[in-house]
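Thread: "does anyone have the structure for this chain?"

Original post by V.I.:
We have the sequence but no experimental structure in hand. Need at least a predicted one for the grant figures.
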Amino acid sequence: MAPDAPIRWGVLGCARIFERRMMPAYRMAANAEVTALASRDGAKAQECAARHGIARAYGSYEALLADPEIEAVYIPLPNHLHAEWTLRALDAGKHVLCDKPAALTYADAKRMADAARVAHLRLMEGFMYRHHPQHARIAEIIRSGEIGPVVHFRGTFTFWGQGHTGHRWDAAQGGGALYDVGVYPLNAARLHFGVEPVSVTAIACWDAPGGVDRHIAAVLEFPDGRTASIEGGFDQAFTTRYELAGPEGVLTTERAFQPGDGPVTLTVRKGDDIRTETIPGANHYVHEIEHFGGCVRDPSRPLRPGEDGAAQMRVVEALQRSLREKRHVEVAEVEA
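Reply from O.Q.:
Generated one for you, tokens below.
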């Protein structure tokens, strides 16, 4: 395949995130072409494919994976199906971009990473926010030493989730605030500290009908005395922010995980001195697709691999254990 040839993608399911966010981004991406879409409902697949100008529609996920022209698969299925269909896609020889969370357990996420490594295929957990330039600028400021060594991270992703319906509110489908939004500030803390947390303590408010956490708050201990506090919920106004604190100052971004298409601002506060920077608007979904495709075409390009998704899932499982058992949990307790 020519290095500049677009990646031929297949999509499993007609999820809203695919239709609203990812399909427009695929159209804009310079190196991507959605060739096929599958649903377990053949008529639904046909309707969705026609709506988006996708050439092929399949009435089963297996049929799409058997298509020899599909190079990479995007998986926006409900959380409890991520591991199964990622493993099946890898077994079919497809590269995989899987929506977060990678899986529901550390064991499954590790199996996914191991399968991709053995097959020499690309696998990435879909945290699109990482591909927005604001986070590269934040990392640059941290490296400059302007706020001193970062000792604490505070991050929040919440929204008002009305209706109590759908997979977010169904424990059997991997619903709940931690899996849905709490994983974002956790991921950002891991990104900026560059190491894994050693222990966690979490509390939650529970939704009785669905058996899921509608709100979670947690404290994480990182090596060298660094800490993070994260929050995720369906029961608050929309907030998507994080801040990094050091002895010399505090760096804050108010639109961390869902910045929209317009410019975003970063604020550095050092005592009474406040500096604001504006980062031009960018579509992080487009950047995510182009980055993944570039790494498929050029295996030498660095990609955040399936092992990172497994490491993230190990911490998530520790948080889940802390919620269930109402105690402080060492991440090392979680084994595959």
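V.I.: this helps a lot. The chain has a mean pLDDT of 96.
O.Q.: and The longest strand covers residues 235-245.
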